[in-house]
Amino acid sequence: MTFSELTCFRTIRVLVLPLAVAALAAPVLAAPRKPLADSELLERLPLRAGDGSARELAALRTGMLAAPGVPGPAALLAQAYFDLAMARGDPRYVGYAEAVIARFGEPQAASLRVVRGLLRQYRHDFGGALDDFAAALALDPGFAAAHAWRAAIFLVQADYAAAQQECATLQGLGRATLFGGCSGLVQAYGGHLDAGYRTLQQALATTDDPGNRLWLLTRLGEVAAWRGQPALAESHYRAALALGRDDGYLLAAWGDFLLDQNRPAEVLVALAGWESADNLLLRLAEAAAALRRPEAARLAQALGERFAAAGLRGDTTHRAEEARYRLRLRGDAGAALRLAAENYRVQREPRDAHVLFEAALAAGDAAAAQPASDWLAASGFEDARLRRLGQELMLAGPRSGIPGRQSPERRAASPGGAGR
Amino acid sequence: MLRRALCLLLLLLALPALAHKASDSYLVLDVQGREVTGQWDIALRDIDFALGLDADGDGGITWGEVRARHAEIAAWALGRLALRRGGECRLAVADHLIDSHSDGSYAVLRLAGSCPSAGGELALDYSLLFELDALHRGLLRLGLDGSTQTAVLSPQRAEQRFAAGEVSRLAQFGQYLVEGIWHIWIGFDHILFLLSLLLPAVLVHEARRWRGVAHFRQALTEVLWVVTAFTVAHSITLSLAALGLVALPSRLVESAIAASVVLAAANNLKPLVERRRWMVAFGFGLIHGFGFASVLVELGLPRETLVLSLLGFNLGVETGQLAIVTAFLPLTYALRGTGFYRRVVFVGGSLATLAIALLWFVERAFDLKLISG
């Protein structure tokens, strides 16, 4: 299922940034009011009743309601909501998907267990998600997506042996593309960037599916950047963008790549109109700050309000982003380090290590980054920038450096890392 | 080309870009005894998902489209919120408004209602949107008999209980006690009045001359009489005024308090009343009670704990008073035989008090600003 017919939004995005910035500047309506005219437009819905994806969702919803208690239609609808959430960066659709699954209590069908696993991993309940995928595989051993997602979670947890096992199973199931993507990333994370790059390229050659190509091209871009080949990385990212599909992960990775390359002006263009998604607003705010744009303060302020709102709900899934926000936009190394360390207990991808190193350096507390230093030593991860950062931290030693002073200097040298 | 044109049209109609966030409703409730008031902000986008507000299917929600569905929205929302205090509370939507939050426009439901019981715990059962959006949360701020509590309402914690129990009553009592102490501490007119009456307590006036009392007991008895009379008197009027049984214009009260200080100080310089100063304390104490009451009215007395708060405030005033007396009496008793006490402290202090109180009186009675703000 695709939602790529939403390309209209891509056109709008480019044109909408100045409007959005103006809106952020406009005074907030402070008190409840009674509109004067019936014609006053209060809210624009994300989907119009008539447009393609709305029709598709409506049909799926009708299908689910017509067959209460039947897993198939419910799984399809929940998956559609989840895909839309990922494409748009809009968590309300995650909630809709969860409610569809919740109708089944403890779901017995493999399809429903897989979607619930997806939703759990979204909430960073990785243990629960692994259980759901395992249960789905017990019901349907050939469910390749469940293996692929288990591998993805093991990668996030830096358990490369377990991830490799899932990759091997995918190969046994004859899923060449998923296998290539899976094992290419295990190689790359585990200290073999060149081999990983080749494996990902081979996987790309096996598929015409735009969704799979977008994912593989994005990851190829990341691996090429880690190998120190920015021109190659850019060509992969551009190829992925040229597919014309909304994808939050791709845009975040592309934004980080541009920030790393000291090209913040292009971030403002690439992510224009995406400030509604928190993770992309972070990249926009960082770019605006680097350029000393007048809207920088407003963007940072808006981002701070988003984190505060999430905090009210007790939502902690954005700690890695919040750490970056605290460190790079607020210069609060202490809070950043606390968040980055908490995040690293749950997520251990290179970008998580990156923000932890950066925060530890700024706070002058190398000991706090020990888990990430251990990972770097054990995995042999080859990204030169991250290794430099790790070394810098080791030289600084535990509890050295001047808190809050190193961050801006360091930032000028290398403006950022990957992130979600 | 057509698609592009449609895109531009959509752009022109587009509202400002807003945050993408998970769905929250903001529920503010104030429960005072039986009475419930509150406000409930629910995103229009969420209401649309549940009820379908976009009647003309153009992707936009207008005030007209919302207004037409007010009754339905109220029934839908109130059907998913239950309050219990000694039984089911009746709730109604008193008004429908609109407000903006970071992720868009919200319907604002102004709530009013009543519960069967004025006391005891409050149970709240919330199920808005949970069947459609499992990540929806109700962010609750609850004022229960004057104490504020917050909670996040989720499918896992949809029903929650809030105690208005001993702790909050005790806290309320403590709060008013502190206010009482604070008011005596910053209320110079009350302190000066008391001191004017206490300064001669360690002296006796004989043959037109002042001399120190022979025994501490003598001074203590005098102080106890004065302080007790002042306390009883102002407690009476404080209660009467705080309960709304008697009301006097504040200008009159404040002027009379200033006058009481003038007279008390003058009596030290040219004694008219010597033996029965407690009667002076009682008479003017009645006036000072009205002064205390005006503070209490400004603080606002929670109806449910009216008597408790009044008692707390009054005890606070007495505690402050007692602290002043405890510090004052040993010192003055030790100094009573000295010329320094009789001339500088007693006469000089009374003169200074008289001067200040006269100024206060003029300011208050004639509504002028001379020295104080």
Explain the overall architecture.
The complex is a heterodimer of chains A (420) and B (373). Chain A is mainly alpha-helical and 420 residues long. Chain A is 70% helix and 1% strand. In chain A, helix 3 (71-88) runs parallel beside helix 5, helix 11 (210-226) runs parallel beside helix 13 (248-260) and helix 19 (350-363) runs parallel beside helix 21 (384-396). The radius of gyration of chain A is 22 Å and the shape is globular. Chain B is of the alpha+beta class and 373 residues long. Chain B has helices at residues 2-13, 44-51, 63-67, 70-78, 166-186, 188-198, 216-242, 250-269, 277-299, 306-335, 339-366; strands at residues 24-32, 35-43, 60-62, 81-84, 90-101, 104-114, 122-126, 137-144, 147-153, 159-162, 203-206, 209-212. In chain B, strands 5-6-2-1-8-9 form a 6-stranded mixed sheet. In chain B, strand 11 (203-206) and strand 12 (209-212) form a beta hairpin. In chain B, 38% of the residues are buried. Residues 1-16 of chain B have low confidence and may be disordered. The chains are: A mainly alpha (420), B alpha+beta (373). The interface between A and B is large, with 59 and 58 residues.
